[in-house]
């Protein structure tokens, strides 16, 4: 059934970007396949580009997208399942790319926080399985086609994607948009500063990144916080970060938090482990108490950029988007604009809700409060700051994947 649904390309997004007309010469069309091996899922993006002769980047004709859960890290002790996942998903690429083009269409996989957080040997065993599947495939397998991507690159590539899709990565444009990406294991912030002081003020070299495109060098403020993704933040708040190594089995331990509904008791799975979780039946609950709990995952960890002016538009996606949908702040399809204070208001609401029935989103108070805390006490955004919540732009996924493919073809010399 999974295979059948994978082969049903109705789930694809055929994207024709604005102001685009197909050139008569079809040899100008090229394809690329990118796998995003994230901590919570694996996704495949099949891009169709049109090469233009100008000095601009190419035009994206369309993207075919498909995703599956869980992420490869959940197969840490059964790596063959990682191979099976990728093999099944490759069928989507075979359907989307004309057979004659397979041999020159590159196939790449980049893994993010899920594999970054595994012991190196175990992560490599998963990557080896994927490499084997690629090598057997009819696609072009470039050198270094399967690897773990570092967090800074993830942020820069997402910035490149969003600025490309919003039309800001052109020769003549001056303004750009910033990005906020909240993954399961890590979170990224990236923007092009207007003030020199923002670059001078950073705590380390891993807060600045550069790349070359359009005959210039872009110097970005960019940082990835490993351990500050939404799911690992849940572990931190629950006090379950090191639970794996403890001598008491996970099935016998209950992880409590004031951020969960008082009478709630349930199971929650992440990274191949299942945790027993519950509210704090005898203690305080509510936004304030929860905020103090989540603050521990943010305070002293997140750097506040010197400049976070209201005149830079920030696009927020991944879990910023998903949690805002769960909270009813935005619709599932179109996203929308939200102020930081909207997250706070909803967090308060979610944390004060008491229902007799099992809640549909037991983690909503924790997730909304974490996001509010990350934005305000973490990065230092004002409550009035407007964020553009987006899952897709012009029908293309808001993700680092497109940026990674542009980097592959155009060697953006990210450093
Ligand atoms: N729509 C969409 N969502 C994505 C994509 N990539 C990641 N996400 C979302 O990102 C979140 C988790 O990111 P993930 O990659 O698992 O975490 P990471 O490993 O910490 O980077 C979830 O909310 C996913 O739905 C994508 O290409 N498209």
UniProtKB/TrEMBL annotation:
Annotated ATP binding sites: 184-188
The catalytic activity of this protein is classed by the Enzyme Commission as: 3.6.1.6
PROSITE patterns of this UniProt entry? Answer: GDA1_CD39_NTPASE
| Superkingdom of the source species | Eukaryota
Active-site annotation: 154 (proton acceptor)
What family does the entry list?
Belongs to the GDA1/CD39 NTPase family.
According to UniProt, the name of this protein is nucleoside diphosphate phosphatase
Gene symbol?
LOC101061741
């Amino acid at each position: 059934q999974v295979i059948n649904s994978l082969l049903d390309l109705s789930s694809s997004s055929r994207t024709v970007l604005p102001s685009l007309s197909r050139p008569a010469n079809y040899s100008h069309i090229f394809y690329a396949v990118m796998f995003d091996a994230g901590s919570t899922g694996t996704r495949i993006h099949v891009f169709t580009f049109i090469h233009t002769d100008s000095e601009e980047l190419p035009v994206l004709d369309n993207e075919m997208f498909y995703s599956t859960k869980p992420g490869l890290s959940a197969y840490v002790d059964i790596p063959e399942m990682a191979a099976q996942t990728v093999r099944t998903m490759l069928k989507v690429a075979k359907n989307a790319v004309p057979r004659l083009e397979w041999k020159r269409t590159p196939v790449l996989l980049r893994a993010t926080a899920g594999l970054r957080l595994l012991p190196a040997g175990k992560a490599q065993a998963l990557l080896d399985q994927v490499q084997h599947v690629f090598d057997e495939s009819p696609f072009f397998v470039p050198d270094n086609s399967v690897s773990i991507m570092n967090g800074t690159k993830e942020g820069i590539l997402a910035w490149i994607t969003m600025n490309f899709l919003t039309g800001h990565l052109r020769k003549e444009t001056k303004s750009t948009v910033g990005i906020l990406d909240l993954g399961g294991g890590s979170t990224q912030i990236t923007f092009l500063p207007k003030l020199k002081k923002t670059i001078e003020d950073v705590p380390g070299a891993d807060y600045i990144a550069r790349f070359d495109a359009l005959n210039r060098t872009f110097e970005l403020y960019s940082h990835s916080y490993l351990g500050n993704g939404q799911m690992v933040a849940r572990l931190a708040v629950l006090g379950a970060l090191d639970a794996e190594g403890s001598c008491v089995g996970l099935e016998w331990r209950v992880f409590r938090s004031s951020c969960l509904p008082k009478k709630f008791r349930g199971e929650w799975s992440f990274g191949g482990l299942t945790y027993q979780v519950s509210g704090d039946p005898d203690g305080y609950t509510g936004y304030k108490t929860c905020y103090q709990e989540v603050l521990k995952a943010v305070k002293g960890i997140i750097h506040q950029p010197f400049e976070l002016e209201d005149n830079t538009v920030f696009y927020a996606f991944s879990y910023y988007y998903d949690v805002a949908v769960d909270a009813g702040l935005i619709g599932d399809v179109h996203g929308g604009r939200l102020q930081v204070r909207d997250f706070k208001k909803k967090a308060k609401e979610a944390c004060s809700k008491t229902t007799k029935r099992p809640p549909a989103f037991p983690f909503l108070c924790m997730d909304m409060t974490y996001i509010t805390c990350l934005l305000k006490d973490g990065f230092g955004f004002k409550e009035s700051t407007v964020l553009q919540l987006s899952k897709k732009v012009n029908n293309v996924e808001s993700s680092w994947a497109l940026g990674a493919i542009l980097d592959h073809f155009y060697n953006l010399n990210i450093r």
